[in-house]
Here is the input.
Amino acid sequence: MGAHHTVNNKPTYLSQGGLEKLRSELDEMVQVRRAEVAGRIHDAKEHGDLSENAEYEDAKNEQAFVEGRIQTLEALIKNATIIDEHHSTEHVQIGSTVMVESGDGTESFTIVGSAEAAPKEGRISNESPVGRVLLGKKKGDRVVVRVPAGDFTYTITKIS
Here is the structure.
């Protein structure tokens, strides 16, 4: 884990596919959108009076968005930690699929980085309450998850 724990540079946990999505979005932003916006600003300037030029304002706002998004993507990619697809099945880690049993029956969760979480599809973030409790646990462990609705207990039945 190491000591580079600053707030804005926390590692981004991504699957290989997730990282590729970000990379292609970054390429698109840098190579396509940046040039488009520059072109729009240039054209708007040609159209004279900037004080009442909505197109110019609009283009400037978009430029700010594009530049911000490029910085965000660059930071995410720079801090990306690829989730190892060949992970341990001894204990839960990011990338694990965990089968649990609770009073309500059996559920399965796949633990992913927050950028790829989709709770409805059973992909939960390592930062979510359930994800945090499950990380590092072993098969057969009982975990208690505290949620506003009360505590509930899961028993881990399988890690894959």
About this structure: The chain is about 40% helix and 25% strand.
